[in-house]
Amino acid sequence: MKLTRRALVKAGTGAVTTGAIAGCLDDIDPASAQIDAGYAAFFTLWDWAEQVSGDAIDFENPVGTGEAGHGWQPSGDLTRNVADTGAFVYLDTPEFSWAQDLAATLESDYDTVAVIDGLEGLEDRLLRWDHEVDTGGHDGNDHDETESDDHEGHDHDETDYDPHVWLDPVIAGEIVDTIATGLADADPDNADTYEENAAAYVDDLESLDERLQDLFGSADRRTAVFAGHDSFTYLQDRYGFELHTPVGVSPQETPSSGEISETISLIDDEGIETILYDPFEAPTGEYPQLVETLLRDSTATDAMPLSHLSGTLSAWEDEGWGYREQMEEINLPALREVVDAQ
Question: Is 25 a residue whose pLDDT tops 60?
Answer without folding.
Answer: no
